[in-house]
Amino acid sequence: MTELTLVIGNKNHSSWSLRPWLALKAAGLPFHEVLIGLRRPETKTEILRHSPSGKLPLLTDGALPIWDSLAICEYIAERQPAAGLWPDAADARATARAVSAEMHAGFMAMRRDYAMDISRRFPDQGSAEARADAARVQEVWRDCRRRFGAGGDFLFGRFGIADCMFAPVVTRFRTYGLPLDAVCQAYSDAVFAHPAMREWCQAAEAETPLENTN
Ligand SMILES: N[C@@H](CCC(=O)N[C@@H](CS)C(=O)NCC(=O)O)C(=O)O
Q1: Could you identify the atom of ligand 1 that is nearest to the CA of residue 55?
Q2: This model's pTM is above 0.70
Q3: Are 165 and 100 spatial neighbours (Cβ–Cβ below 8 Å)?
Q4: pLDDT band at 214 (very low <50, low <70, confident <90, very high)
Q5: What is the pLDDT of residue 213?
Q6: Which of 8, 18, 22, 56 to mutate to test the pocket of ligand 1 (most atoms within 8 A of CB)?
Q7: Which domains occur in the chain, in start order?
Q8: In angstroms, how far is CA 75 from the centroid of its own chain?
């Protein structure tokens, strides 16, 4: 087996890095970790030494580089099918892919106004567009839990890629004190209680936070 290395950004801030890191942990695949500090003069040069896109995260499997969080999650699911990172049933799997793609491609206002910052707390100064994004996120969580969540505490029952994609958003609700209804609060509690999420959050809290993140 070739060795896996995941190149990531600061754990307190790099929401895209968190997603495949959780997927690797959930898959039970051992991997090396390389952390590149964001927002430093040398950051871009350092990232480009690893990643052709100039962005993090990047996974290498031996000599093969795979960039972009969702592509990496897909690769992990294929490399470790027994982990069941996508749901078994076709309708659940299609929905899990749809909400993961929606997260990956959308929610721009939420990303802008509610930057991930795991260790600190801020008042909610989000725009109307960001609040609309937060409402849509909760609609997605409620719908997945109601239709597909019966087998466990996560969006599709057991923990999977859809949960990895939404895990950074779970932290944003907490950081900015955004209200959650009972179903979404229970889902948030389950994500924070996941052992891999706890491990990432502990490391994030041990970092010195960056200023002016977005
Ligand atoms: N679509 C990409 C987004 C990656 C991204 O924006 N990564 C940020 C860190 S969270 C980054 O590399 N920023 C450094 C830079 O742009 O110089 C993904 O899903 O992986």
Answers
A1: 12
A2: yes
A3: yes
A4: very low
A5: 46
A6: 56
A7: 4-83 (3.40.30.10), 90-199 (1.20.1050.10)
A8: 15
